[in-house]
């Protein structure tokens, strides 16, 4: 083992020595080659070569004398000197250029890193700003949801949810938003109609005021953020089997509440004003009405209570509660202003249609009875009273049970007749046309060729002749 180590050490020393001597001789040659170009000549060089044998180390010294070279040797030296000169120039250029290149690359990399850091900082700053904006928007929407909305300014009635609402502001996608036409709206409207949040009507693909308001009613019922937006959470709940039917209960706010309050005042169950907020006084009045009319007295206004409340057979309170008299014909669902009854002598089918056409484009709102918004029953009620035909507010179902002459065949209707469909009413204009408050279109519209429409022919129940 020791002999092996000695051999390795010996050959290592020999290798290092030979490399050192070679490097030294190389640079000496370069120096004297360059110097020879300026007339300097090398006189004597001593080289020592270490020869290592297995047992001894011999050092031979040789002295090389340079005399005047022959022409042949001069040529060889000149060529070698030229080669060395070129090599030296390459080394010098590389030594100067390479550091510059590497320095420029380092600066470029450092600049890129700095730019990346700045961009990341900007993104973080933008995210913070966006978060602030989102929080601000959520606070604003929350404040809007807690306040009553004035229909005269074309805002939508909302409610103050009892529970913390689930934020559903983000639409399913950017194309599904109020004001657009989209085939998916047809399915949404049909579902809202099934649950009672939207009056029965021919569904459309228009995301209008009626659809937006119906979504608000649905969100109000399910303690979601009341924004009327078809967000992911709202739609998931809407098409869930546990989705609740439309009812009005304690804590709700909207034009539908105001309409109920006005009717309770007419029947002497409520003495307070129609504020649009379903408080404890309104709940007590509803329970009293339900008891007197043989309904389950839970204080909530569902489909059965609502139909009974607005029917001609609704029983008034036995004693007055200090509210308005039973002779009132009801009022507008906005602004607490009673409907203006026109001159009875001018009441006619032509006058009714002429006036109804002046209301085209006004928004549909559940429970609206004019002058700025309507549901289908409120529109018929408002138009009839405006031309001098005094009549109380009736739901679409209640219209079918009135004592006016009844027309059972769709094609036998005449101008001015009130058309009664499943969950909907309208005014017949003649020539197969109708004007009505459309929940599907979200406004007052006219329709043509209703006799050839499979929807209207399938859902027609009767017509009532008031002229």
Task: List the SSEs and their pairings.
Blueprint: H1 2-36, E1 44-52, E2 57-65, H2 71-146, H3 184-194, H4 209-221, H5 232-238, H6 255-266, H7 280-292, H8 303-309, H9 349-357, H10 376-386, H11 396-400, E3 406-407, E4 418-421, E5 424-430, E6 433-438, E7 443-447, H12 454-459, E8 460-464
Antiparallel strand pairs: 1-2, 3-8, 4-5, 4-8, 5-6, 6-7
Helix pairs in contact: 1-2, 3-4, 9-10
- SS-based structural class? alpha+beta
Give the rounded overall mean pLDDT. 75
The helix count comes to: 12
Could you name the ranges where pLDDT drops below 50 across 5 or more consecutive residues? 45-80, 123-134, 136-164, 322-336
Gross morphology is elongated
Structure in words:
The protein has helices at residues 2-36, 71-146, 184-194, 209-221, 232-238, 255-266, 280-292, 303-309, 349-357, 376-386, 396-400, 454-459, and strands spanning 44-52, 57-65, 406-407, 418-421, 424-430, 433-438, 443-447, 460-464. By secondary structure, the protein is an alpha+beta fold. The longest helix has 76 residues, at 71-146. It starts with a helix and ends with a strand. Residues 45-80, 123-134, 136-164 and 322-336 have low confidence and may be disordered.
Question: What's the quick description here?
Answer:
With 467 residues, this protein is of the alpha+beta class. The chain has helices at 2-36, 71-146, 184-194, 209-221, 232-238, 255-266, 280-292, 303-309, 349-357, 376-386, 396-400, 454-459, and strands at residues 44-52, 57-65, 406-407, 418-421, 424-430, 433-438, 443-447, 460-464.
């Amino acid at each position: 083992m020791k002999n092996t180590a000695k051999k390795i050490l010996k050959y290592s020393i020999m290798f290092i020595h030979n490399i050192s001597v070679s490097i030294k001789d190389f640079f000496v040659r370069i120096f004297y080659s360059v110097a020879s170009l300026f007339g300097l000549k090398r006189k004597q060089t001593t080289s020592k070569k270490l020869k290592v044998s297995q047992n001894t180390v011999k050092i031979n010294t040789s002295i090389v004398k340079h005399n005047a070279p022959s022409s042949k040797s001069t040529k060889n030296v000149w060529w070698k000197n030229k080669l060395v000169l070129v090599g030296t120039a390459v080394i010098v250029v590389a030594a100067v250029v390479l550091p510059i290149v590497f320095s420029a690359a380092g600066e470029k990399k450092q600049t890129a890193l700095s730019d990346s850091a700045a961009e990341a900082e900007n993104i973080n700053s933008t995210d913070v700003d966006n978060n602030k904006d989102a929080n601000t928007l959520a606070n604003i929407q929350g404040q809007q949801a807690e306040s009553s909305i004035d229909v005269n300014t074309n805002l939508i009635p909302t409610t103050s949810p009892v529970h913390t609402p689930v934020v559903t502001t983000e639409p399913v996608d950017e194309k599904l938003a109020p004001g657009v036409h989209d085939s998916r709206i047809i399915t949404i409207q049909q579902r809202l109609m099934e649950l009672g949040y939207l009056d029965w009507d021919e569904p459309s693909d228009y995301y209008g005021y009626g659809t937006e308001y119906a979504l608000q009613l649905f969100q109000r019922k399910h303690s979601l953020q009341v924004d009327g937006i078809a967000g992911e959470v709202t739609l998931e709940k809407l098409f869930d089997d546990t989705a609740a039917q439309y009812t009005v209960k304690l804590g709700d706010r909207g034009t539908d509440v105001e309409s109920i309050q006005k009717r309770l005042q007419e029947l002497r169950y409520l003495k307070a004003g129609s504020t649009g907020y379903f408080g404890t006084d309104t709940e007590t009045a509803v329970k009293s009405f339900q008891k007197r009319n043989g309904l389950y007295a839970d204080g909530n206004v569902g489909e059965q209570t609502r139909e009974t409340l607005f029917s001609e057979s609704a029983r008034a309170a036995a004693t007055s509660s200090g509210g308005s008299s039973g002779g009132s014909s009801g009022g507008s669902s906005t602004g607490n202003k009673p409907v203006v009854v026109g001159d009875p002598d001018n009441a006619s089918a032509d006058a009714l249609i002429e006036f109804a056409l002046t209301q085209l484009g006004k928004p549909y709102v559940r429970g609206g009875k004019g002058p700025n918004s309507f549901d289908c029953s409120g529109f018929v009620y408002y138009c009839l009273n405006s031309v001098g035909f005094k009549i109380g507010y009736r739901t679409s179902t209640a219209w079918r049970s009135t004592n006016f002459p009844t027309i059972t065949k769709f094609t036998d209707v005449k101008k001015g007749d009130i058309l009664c469909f499943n969950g909907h009413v309208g005014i017949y204009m003649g020539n197969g046309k109708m004007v009505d408050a459309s929940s599907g279109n979200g406004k007052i519209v006219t329709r043509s060729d209703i006799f050839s429409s499979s929807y209207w022919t399938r859902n027609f129940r009767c017509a009532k002749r008031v002229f």
